[in-house]
Amino acid sequence: MKFQTLQIVAGLAAAVAFVLAFMAAGVALVSWLFMLIGLAAVAWLAYSLVKSVLHRDTKPKPPARA
Asked: What is the pLDDT along the chain (66 residues), one digit of tens a residue?
């Protein structure tokens, strides 16, 4: 009888371990997704800043007359 109880406890422990492993994998996947979104935002920001600096007019505009 004790052997069957040990098997049930081991089965429940394995089920809990699998659930925790799948949760950790999901958290890792979501973390990677947010990391990629953040990297894309930083890349876009850097690109837009470099683009604006390279396309800036070198000639100063004359002051406006009132």
From this structure: 567 988 999 999 999 999 999 999 999 999 999 999 999 999 999 999 999 888 876 666 777 776
Distance between CA atoms of residues 28 and 22, nearest Å: 10
- The pair of three-digit structure tokens given for residue 4, joined into one six-digit string: 């069957």
**Coil/strand/helix, residue 53:** helix
Cα–Cα distance list, 19 to 12, 24, 25, 28, 29 (Å): 11, 9, 10, 14, 15
Q: pTM here?
A: 0.60
- The CA-atom distances, in angstroms, between 3 and each of 6, 7, 8, 14 are 5, 6, 9, 16
Please tell me whether residue 32 adopts helix, strand or coil conformation: helix
